[in-house]
Amino acid sequence: MASSSDIRKGLCINYSNDIYKVIEFLHVKPGKGPAFVRTKLKSVTNGKVIDNTFSAGHKIDEVRVETKKFQFLYKEGLTYHFMNVDDYNQITVEENLLDSYEFLKEGEIVTVLTNTEDGSSLSVEMPQSVILEISETEPGLKGNTATNATKPATLQTGATINVPLFINEGDSIKIDPEKGSYLERVKI
Question: SS3 string of 99-167?
């Protein structure tokens, strides 16, 4: 058993007869009254996100998890296939367990959280940034760079994000998969 002071991003807990992963949290100490922790929890079984507040010292039932590195192989319908980079065992994961599946390309290394009690996959965490190629975008107009203007661009995975006007088709860019935003252009 853990307490509310142990809450952190990525923690998996048993709550309301389901397993939830903490995706956001904030420790609050108001001027009057007791401290509490405001959380945003995501169900690992159905992907539903709920807001919950835990009072200070509240006991929570932590799920013991193990993290392993896996390589993304391919997608088949709503199922994603991954291979363990250490022992080459393959697993399949449902789409609702992936946070930013639209930025997942073949060969990408991800972290898979597995429940140590029953060996089931709880969630798939993307790396901090991914490098993808622009497959389709409108050409930028010369001299139109005075403002922070953006244009839509389709990536090699099919996802669409906004990029600066100087980005062209065939360019490789670094993306923050958690926010789904452009970070920088990279030379490969």
Answer: CCHHHCCCCCEEEEEEECCCCCEEEEECCCCEEEEEEEECCCCCCCCCCCCEEEEEECCCCEEEEECCC
**Claim to verify: residue 56 and residue 81 sit in the same structural domain:** no
**pTM above 0.85?**
no
Token pair for 76: 């088949």
Q: For residue 98, what are its two tokens? A: 């992936």
Mark whether 163 and 178 lie in a shared domain. yes
**89 and 113 housed in the same domain:** yes
Count of CA atoms in the C-beta half-sphere (13 A) of 159: 21
| Full residue range of the structural domain in which residue 138 is found | 130-186
Specify whether 162 is located in the same domain as 140. Answer: yes
Q: Which structure tokens are listed for 145?
A: 């760079």
HSE (side-chain half, CA atoms, 13 Å) at 85:
12
Tell me the mean pLDDT in the region 78-92. Answer: 91
Same domain, 139 and 120: no
Q: Report d(CA 130, CA 180) in Å as an integer.
A: 10
Per-residue model confidence (pLDDT) at position 180: 86
Q: What's the total number of domains in the chain?
A: 3
